[in-house]
Amino acid sequence: LLSYEHAFHAGNHADVLKHASVCALLRALSSKPKPFFYLDTHAGSGCYEIEGHSHHDDVAARLLTAQDGAAISNLLPTAIADYVQIIKPYLSKASYPGSPLIVSDMLELLGQEKAPLCDIFLSNNLQLSELHPSAFALLKQWMSPTPFHCHHRDGLELLNALTPPKPKRGLVLIDPAYEQASEYAQLVDSVSKALTKWRNGIFCIWYPLLSPQRLDRVTHEVVDTPKHGLSEKMVTAFTDIAARLGVGLLDIRFAQQAPSTNIGMYGSGMLIINPPYQIQSTLQGLLQYLQKHLKQGENNLSALSILVPSP
Ligand code: SAM
Question: Quick one: average pLDDT of 7-20?
Protein backbone atom coordinates (compact mmCIF):
# COMPACT_ATOMS: atom_id res chain seq x y z
CA LEU A 1 0.00 0.00 0.00
CA LEU A 2 1.13 3.53 -0.86
CA SER A 3 4.07 2.22 -2.89
CA TYR A 4 3.02 4.12 -6.02
CA GLU A 5 5.49 6.79 -7.15
CA HIS A 6 4.14 9.24 -9.66
CA ALA A 7 7.68 10.41 -10.58
CA PHE A 8 8.01 7.37 -12.88
CA HIS A 9 4.92 8.43 -14.81
CA ALA A 10 5.10 12.22 -14.63
CA GLY A 11 4.47 13.88 -17.98
CA ASN A 12 3.28 10.72 -19.75
CA HIS A 13 0.23 10.59 -22.06
CA ALA A 14 -2.12 10.12 -19.11
CA ASP A 15 -0.79 13.24 -17.37
CA VAL A 16 -1.15 15.23 -20.58
CA LEU A 17 -4.82 14.22 -20.98
CA LYS A 18 -5.58 14.80 -17.28
CA HIS A 19 -3.76 18.10 -16.85
CA ALA A 20 -4.87 19.69 -20.14
CA SER A 21 -8.51 18.68 -19.35
CA VAL A 22 -8.23 20.28 -15.90
CA CYS A 23 -6.92 23.50 -17.50
CA ALA A 24 -9.98 23.48 -19.79
CA LEU A 25 -12.35 22.92 -16.85
CA LEU A 26 -10.78 25.77 -14.85
CA ARG A 27 -11.09 28.13 -17.82
CA ALA A 28 -14.77 27.17 -18.11
CA LEU A 29 -15.33 27.69 -14.36
CA SER A 30 -13.67 31.08 -14.45
CA SER A 31 -15.95 32.33 -17.23
CA LYS A 32 -18.23 33.60 -14.43
CA PRO A 33 -16.64 36.17 -12.10
CA LYS A 34 -17.46 34.17 -8.97
CA PRO A 35 -15.20 32.21 -6.59
CA PHE A 36 -15.23 28.43 -6.61
CA PHE A 37 -14.22 25.38 -4.57
CA TYR A 38 -11.43 23.10 -5.78
CA LEU A 39 -10.30 19.79 -4.29
CA ASP A 40 -7.55 17.45 -5.54
CA THR A 41 -8.15 14.23 -3.56
CA HIS A 42 -4.87 12.51 -4.60
CA ALA A 43 -2.53 15.46 -5.05
CA GLY A 44 0.90 13.76 -5.24
CA SER A 45 4.11 15.56 -4.27
CA GLY A 46 3.65 18.72 -6.31
CA CYS A 47 6.56 18.54 -8.76
CA TYR A 48 8.68 15.76 -10.30
CA GLU A 49 12.20 15.52 -11.64
CA ILE A 50 12.12 13.95 -15.07
CA GLU A 51 15.88 13.61 -15.49
CA GLY A 52 16.52 9.95 -16.26
CA HIS A 53 12.89 9.34 -17.26
CA SER A 54 13.58 10.27 -20.85
CA HIS A 55 10.47 8.57 -22.27
CA HIS A 56 8.26 10.88 -20.22
CA ASP A 57 10.30 13.93 -21.03
CA ASP A 58 9.89 12.96 -24.67
CA VAL A 59 6.07 13.03 -24.53
CA ALA A 60 5.83 16.51 -23.11
CA ALA A 61 8.70 17.79 -25.25
CA ARG A 62 7.01 16.49 -28.37
CA LEU A 63 3.90 18.44 -27.47
CA LEU A 64 6.00 21.56 -27.21
CA THR A 65 7.62 20.98 -30.58
CA ALA A 66 4.27 20.34 -32.16
CA GLN A 67 2.92 23.48 -30.54
CA ASP A 68 5.42 25.70 -32.35
CA GLY A 69 4.24 24.41 -35.73
CA ALA A 70 0.58 24.66 -34.82
CA ALA A 71 0.98 28.15 -33.34
CA ILE A 72 2.12 29.45 -36.72
CA SER A 73 -1.05 28.18 -38.35
CA ASN A 74 -3.08 29.44 -35.38
CA LEU A 75 -4.62 26.03 -34.80
CA LEU A 76 -3.60 25.38 -31.22
CA PRO A 77 -6.61 24.38 -29.09
CA THR A 78 -6.97 26.63 -26.01
CA ALA A 79 -6.63 23.74 -23.54
CA ILE A 80 -3.28 22.78 -25.09
CA ALA A 81 -2.09 26.39 -25.33
CA ASP A 82 -2.75 26.94 -21.60
CA TYR A 83 -1.19 23.60 -20.63
CA VAL A 84 1.93 24.12 -22.75
CA GLN A 85 2.44 27.63 -21.41
CA ILE A 86 2.33 26.22 -17.87
CA ILE A 87 4.63 23.20 -18.30
CA LYS A 88 7.26 24.92 -20.48
CA PRO A 89 9.26 26.63 -17.68
CA TYR A 90 9.28 23.39 -15.63
CA LEU A 91 10.45 21.28 -18.58
CA SER A 92 13.31 23.67 -19.21
CA LYS A 93 14.51 22.74 -15.69
CA ALA A 94 14.05 18.99 -16.35
CA SER A 95 11.01 18.81 -14.11
CA TYR A 96 7.29 18.33 -14.58
CA PRO A 97 4.54 19.99 -12.49
CA GLY A 98 1.92 17.83 -10.79
CA SER A 99 -1.77 18.70 -10.76
CA PRO A 100 -1.53 21.11 -7.74
CA LEU A 101 1.09 23.31 -9.45
CA ILE A 102 -0.71 23.09 -12.82
CA VAL A 103 -3.92 24.31 -11.15
CA SER A 104 -2.13 27.00 -9.14
CA ASP A 105 -0.36 28.30 -12.28
CA MET A 106 -3.58 28.12 -14.31
CA LEU A 107 -5.41 30.20 -11.70
CA GLU A 108 -2.59 32.73 -11.82
CA LEU A 109 -2.85 32.84 -15.62
CA LEU A 110 -6.61 33.35 -15.47
CA GLY A 111 -6.14 35.99 -12.74
CA GLN A 112 -3.74 37.93 -14.99
CA GLU A 113 -6.16 37.73 -17.94
CA LYS A 114 -9.02 38.92 -15.80
CA ALA A 115 -7.01 41.46 -13.81
CA PRO A 116 -9.95 43.27 -12.18
CA LEU A 117 -11.18 39.92 -10.84
CA CYS A 118 -7.93 38.99 -9.07
CA ASP A 119 -9.38 39.26 -5.58
CA ILE A 120 -12.22 36.95 -6.62
CA PHE A 121 -9.68 34.32 -7.66
CA LEU A 122 -7.85 34.70 -4.37
CA SER A 123 -11.06 34.02 -2.49
CA ASN A 124 -11.38 30.55 -4.06
CA ASN A 125 -11.55 27.68 -1.57
CA LEU A 126 -8.59 25.46 -2.63
CA GLN A 127 -7.92 22.08 -0.98
CA LEU A 128 -5.36 19.32 -1.57
CA SER A 129 -5.10 15.88 -0.01
CA GLU A 130 -2.16 13.44 -0.04
CA LEU A 131 -1.75 10.38 2.17
CA HIS A 132 1.87 9.31 1.55
CA PRO A 133 4.05 10.96 4.28
CA SER A 134 7.05 11.91 2.10
CA ALA A 135 4.89 12.98 -0.87
CA PHE A 136 2.85 15.11 1.57
CA ALA A 137 5.99 16.78 2.98
CA LEU A 138 7.10 17.76 -0.52
CA LEU A 139 3.59 18.89 -1.46
CA LYS A 140 3.49 21.22 1.55
CA GLN A 141 6.82 22.74 0.55
CA TRP A 142 5.83 23.28 -3.08
CA MET A 143 2.47 24.78 -2.21
CA SER A 144 3.55 26.96 0.72
CA PRO A 145 3.64 30.20 -1.35
CA THR A 146 0.08 29.54 -2.64
CA PRO A 147 -3.39 29.86 -1.07
CA PHE A 148 -3.92 26.04 -1.22
CA HIS A 149 -4.64 24.12 2.00
CA CYS A 150 -2.75 20.80 2.19
CA HIS A 151 -4.22 17.87 4.15
CA HIS A 152 -2.33 14.74 5.16
CA ARG A 153 -5.47 12.68 4.92
CA ASP A 154 -7.39 10.10 2.88
CA GLY A 155 -8.67 12.05 -0.15
CA LEU A 156 -12.06 10.36 -0.42
CA GLU A 157 -12.70 10.81 3.28
CA LEU A 158 -11.85 14.51 2.92
CA LEU A 159 -14.19 14.75 -0.09
CA ASN A 160 -17.10 13.64 2.02
CA ALA A 161 -16.08 15.82 4.96
CA LEU A 162 -15.99 18.93 2.73
CA THR A 163 -19.18 18.40 0.71
CA PRO A 164 -21.35 20.32 0.13
CA PRO A 165 -18.62 22.97 -0.01
CA LYS A 166 -18.71 26.73 0.18
CA PRO A 167 -18.87 28.24 -2.38
CA LYS A 168 -21.20 25.74 -4.02
CA ARG A 169 -19.68 25.95 -7.51
CA GLY A 170 -16.61 23.85 -7.85
CA LEU A 171 -14.45 21.09 -9.21
CA VAL A 172 -13.00 17.93 -7.67
CA LEU A 173 -10.10 16.11 -9.32
CA ILE A 174 -9.90 12.44 -8.36
CA ASP A 175 -6.68 10.83 -9.51
CA PRO A 176 -5.93 7.69 -7.45
CA ALA A 177 -3.02 5.33 -8.07
CA TYR A 178 -5.47 2.36 -8.24
CA GLU A 179 -2.91 0.16 -6.47
CA GLN A 180 -5.65 -2.03 -4.98
CA ALA A 181 -8.51 -3.52 -7.02
CA SER A 182 -10.86 -2.44 -4.23
CA GLU A 183 -10.13 1.27 -4.89
CA TYR A 184 -12.44 1.35 -7.92
CA ALA A 185 -15.54 0.38 -5.94
CA GLN A 186 -14.55 2.62 -2.99
CA LEU A 187 -14.29 5.55 -5.37
CA VAL A 188 -17.74 4.90 -6.86
CA ASP A 189 -19.21 4.71 -3.38
CA SER A 190 -17.53 7.92 -2.10
CA VAL A 191 -18.31 10.01 -5.18
CA SER A 192 -21.89 8.77 -5.23
CA LYS A 193 -22.32 9.91 -1.58
CA ALA A 194 -20.68 13.29 -2.26
CA LEU A 195 -22.77 13.83 -5.39
CA THR A 196 -25.99 13.11 -3.52
CA LYS A 197 -25.07 15.95 -1.10
CA TRP A 198 -23.73 18.25 -3.84
CA ARG A 199 -25.68 17.70 -7.07
CA ASN A 200 -24.06 20.53 -9.05
CA GLY A 201 -20.43 19.69 -8.21
CA ILE A 202 -18.12 18.97 -11.13
CA PHE A 203 -16.25 15.72 -10.55
CA CYS A 204 -13.36 14.78 -12.78
CA ILE A 205 -12.27 11.16 -12.36
CA TRP A 206 -9.17 9.84 -14.09
CA TYR A 207 -8.95 6.12 -14.90
CA PRO A 208 -6.39 3.86 -16.66
CA LEU A 209 -7.07 1.75 -19.76
CA LEU A 210 -5.22 -1.54 -19.30
CA SER A 211 -4.32 -4.21 -21.85
CA PRO A 212 -6.15 -7.50 -21.08
CA GLN A 213 -2.92 -9.50 -21.01
CA ARG A 214 0.76 -8.77 -20.51
CA LEU A 215 4.10 -10.47 -20.92
CA ASP A 216 5.54 -11.46 -17.54
CA ARG A 217 9.05 -9.95 -17.40
CA VAL A 218 10.45 -12.85 -15.36
CA THR A 219 8.79 -15.93 -16.87
CA HIS A 220 8.22 -14.39 -20.35
CA GLU A 221 4.76 -15.97 -20.32
CA VAL A 222 1.59 -14.13 -21.35
CA VAL A 223 -0.55 -13.64 -18.22
CA ASP A 224 -3.90 -11.94 -17.54
CA THR A 225 -3.73 -8.35 -16.25
CA PRO A 226 -5.43 -8.58 -12.82
CA LYS A 227 -7.11 -5.14 -12.94
CA HIS A 228 -8.14 -5.27 -16.59
CA GLY A 229 -11.80 -4.30 -17.05
CA LEU A 230 -12.18 -2.57 -13.66
CA SER A 231 -12.10 0.93 -15.18
CA GLU A 232 -14.76 -0.06 -17.72
CA LYS A 233 -16.92 -1.45 -14.87
CA MET A 234 -16.47 1.82 -12.98
CA VAL A 235 -17.58 3.82 -16.04
CA THR A 236 -20.75 1.70 -16.23
CA ALA A 237 -21.41 2.23 -12.51
CA PHE A 238 -21.06 6.02 -12.88
CA THR A 239 -23.32 6.01 -15.93
CA ASP A 240 -26.06 4.34 -13.85
CA ILE A 241 -25.54 6.76 -10.95
CA ALA A 242 -25.57 9.86 -13.17
CA ALA A 243 -28.71 8.67 -14.97
CA ARG A 244 -30.44 7.95 -11.64
CA LEU A 245 -29.50 11.35 -10.15
CA GLY A 246 -30.24 13.22 -13.38
CA VAL A 247 -26.77 14.76 -13.81
CA GLY A 248 -24.70 14.95 -17.01
CA LEU A 249 -21.75 12.61 -17.58
CA LEU A 250 -19.03 12.97 -20.20
CA ASP A 251 -16.22 10.54 -20.97
CA ILE A 252 -13.00 11.48 -22.75
CA ARG A 253 -10.50 8.72 -23.46
CA PHE A 254 -7.20 8.79 -25.25
CA ALA A 255 -5.55 5.55 -26.37
CA GLN A 256 -1.91 6.29 -27.12
CA GLN A 257 -1.47 2.77 -28.52
CA ALA A 258 -3.57 -0.30 -29.23
CA PRO A 259 -3.70 -2.74 -26.28
CA SER A 260 -0.88 -5.29 -26.42
CA THR A 261 1.03 -7.68 -24.18
CA ASN A 262 4.00 -5.27 -24.30
CA ILE A 263 2.22 -2.38 -22.71
CA GLY A 264 0.31 -2.30 -19.41
CA MET A 265 -1.51 1.02 -19.67
CA TYR A 266 -2.27 1.75 -23.34
CA GLY A 267 -4.38 4.81 -22.63
CA SER A 268 -6.54 6.53 -20.06
CA GLY A 269 -9.77 8.39 -19.62
CA MET A 270 -11.51 11.08 -17.64
CA LEU A 271 -15.10 10.93 -16.50
CA ILE A 272 -16.60 14.37 -16.02
CA ILE A 273 -19.76 14.57 -13.94
CA ASN A 274 -21.73 17.82 -14.46
CA PRO A 275 -19.57 18.94 -17.42
CA PRO A 276 -19.63 22.74 -17.83
CA TYR A 277 -21.58 24.17 -20.72
CA GLN A 278 -19.63 24.03 -24.03
CA ILE A 279 -16.68 22.06 -22.59
CA GLN A 280 -17.45 19.32 -25.09
CA SER A 281 -16.10 21.22 -28.11
CA THR A 282 -12.97 22.28 -26.14
CA LEU A 283 -12.27 18.67 -25.19
CA GLN A 284 -12.94 17.51 -28.74
CA GLY A 285 -10.19 19.91 -29.89
CA LEU A 286 -7.88 18.57 -27.20
CA LEU A 287 -8.53 14.96 -28.17
CA GLN A 288 -7.92 15.61 -31.87
CA TYR A 289 -4.65 17.31 -30.96
CA LEU A 290 -3.50 14.40 -28.80
CA GLN A 291 -4.41 11.93 -31.53
CA LYS A 292 -2.45 13.90 -34.08
CA HIS A 293 0.66 14.49 -31.96
CA LEU A 294 0.88 11.67 -29.40
CA LYS A 295 -0.72 8.60 -30.93
CA GLN A 296 1.66 5.76 -31.77
CA GLY A 297 0.48 3.34 -34.47
CA GLU A 298 -3.13 2.85 -35.49
CA ASN A 299 -6.14 2.48 -33.22
CA ASN A 300 -9.59 4.02 -33.13
CA LEU A 301 -10.14 3.68 -29.38
CA SER A 302 -9.96 7.38 -28.47
CA ALA A 303 -13.37 8.99 -28.09
CA LEU A 304 -15.41 11.71 -26.48
CA SER A 305 -18.81 10.36 -25.44
CA ILE A 306 -21.81 11.86 -23.71
CA LEU A 307 -22.79 8.97 -21.44
CA VAL A 308 -25.65 10.88 -19.81
CA PRO A 309 -26.87 14.16 -21.36
CA SER A 310 -26.89 17.24 -19.09
CA PRO A 311 -30.43 18.12 -17.94
N1 SAM B 1 -2.81 14.06 -9.05
C2 SAM B 1 -1.35 14.00 -9.16
C3 SAM B 1 -0.94 14.70 -10.42
O4 SAM B 1 -1.71 14.75 -11.38
O5 SAM B 1 0.19 15.24 -10.44
C6 SAM B 1 -0.85 12.58 -9.18
C7 SAM B 1 -1.42 11.69 -8.14
S8 SAM B 1 -0.80 10.07 -8.12
C9 SAM B 1 -1.54 9.33 -9.50
C10 SAM B 1 -1.70 9.36 -6.79
C11 SAM B 1 -1.28 9.88 -5.42
O12 SAM B 1 -2.27 9.50 -4.47
C13 SAM B 1 0.04 9.33 -4.91
O14 SAM B 1 0.88 10.41 -4.57
C15 SAM B 1 -0.33 8.53 -3.65
O16 SAM B 1 0.63 8.62 -2.62
C17 SAM B 1 -1.61 9.22 -3.23
N18 SAM B 1 -2.57 8.41 -2.44
C19 SAM B 1 -2.75 7.07 -2.42
N20 SAM B 1 -3.83 6.75 -1.64
C21 SAM B 1 -4.33 7.93 -1.20
C22 SAM B 1 -5.46 8.26 -0.40
N23 SAM B 1 -6.26 7.32 0.10
N24 SAM B 1 -5.73 9.58 -0.17
C25 SAM B 1 -4.91 10.55 -0.67
N26 SAM B 1 -3.83 10.28 -1.44
C27 SAM B 1 -3.54 8.99 -1.70
Answer: 88
CA of 170 to the centre of ligand 1 (A): 20
pTM check: above 0.90: yes
Q: What are phi and psi of 49, to 5 degrees?
A: -80, 135
Q: Say yes or no to pLDDT of 140 above 70.
A: yes
| Close Cβ partners of 29 (under 8 Å, ≥ 6 residues apart) | 36, 169, 170, 171, 202, 276
pLDDT digits (tens, 9 = 90+) for 61-98: 567 666 655 554 456 788 888 998 899 899 888 889 99
Higher pLDDT among residues 215 and 139, named by residue: 139
Q: How far apart are CA 20 and CA 207, in angstroms?
A: 15
| Positive or negative torsion for Cα 51, 53, 59, 62 | positive
Cβ–Cβ < 8 Å for 302, 236: no
Q: Which of 18, 40, 42, 139 to mutate for ligand 1's pocket (most ligand atoms within 8 Å of CB)?
A: 42
- For 2-24, what is the mean pLDDT? 85
154 CA: nearest ligand 1 atom: 24
Q: What string of H, E and C letters represents the secondary structure of 33-95?
A: CCCCEEEECCCCCCEEECCCCHHHHHHHHHHHHHHHHHHHCCCCCHHHHHHHHHHHHHHCCCE
CA pair distance 109, 90, nearest whole angstrom: 15
Mean pLDDT for 35-44 is: 96
- Cis peptide bond prior to 145, omega within 30° of 0: no
Question: How many CB atoms sit inside 10 A of residue 84's CB?
Answer: 22
